[in-house]
Amino acid sequence: MGIEQGHFRKRGVHVDWTTFRGGTGQMTRALREDEIDLCILLTEGIIKDVIAGNPSKIISQYVITPLTWGVHTGTTNELISYDAIFDKKYAISRFGSGSHLMAIVDANSKGMIIAPDQFKVIKNLDGALPSLAAGETDVFYWEKYTTKPYVDSGQLRRLGEYLTPWPCFVIAATDKILDQQPENVIRVLRTIHDLCDNFMRDDDAIQQVSERYKQKVADVERWYHSTEWAIHGWVSDKMIQSVIYHLKLAGLVDRNEVIPELIWKR
Known about the structure:
The protein is α/β, with parallel strands linked by helices.
């Protein structure tokens, strides 16, 4: 909306938007390969990938409320109980993606372990639907409001929900763009923060989202009133440490790993 309304242009910055349907794993790879300069992605995904060598930094929080993950299965699957999912086959967009990481973190929080061979890469939501319907996979973690139309239409069945133990989305940028265009990055951030502030005060926001994303107004209302966006660039060190703790606990980051600088220091 900020691009459409010319807000970045007013600050002298040209911004191109790209949607990555493959989620966080696809975006971290795009950052590594210098295909994009900045992106909005899952907190735990970018932290894990920067630790693994991605030459990028977190430059701001974006959504400061937790993400509600829906835990789904196919409508004909015999799986009934959320408690019975941890020895099943998991559909994930990519290794290192949110659908992969949160399944492991959720299992770990319940004292369970998911083996690597339980995961099957299906690339995105469009890949998950036929995989779950055919019984190739049994379980799929994806943001619950995104999948709700598919639950409502009978293409998916929700077994339960899992809330991330930290703010869910951050904005990240490559070290290259931070070195080359720091002032433009700051202009982009100020524009995003202003837009987020306005969006949270906009009486028409719910209707706009409902129309744009073909969601029921009642569902958008619940999402809108349970979501808060960042209006400044501050990133909590305690939040970062909490994510690292959970990643280590889940075996996704080595306990003795040397943690690099994760946050862009202005």
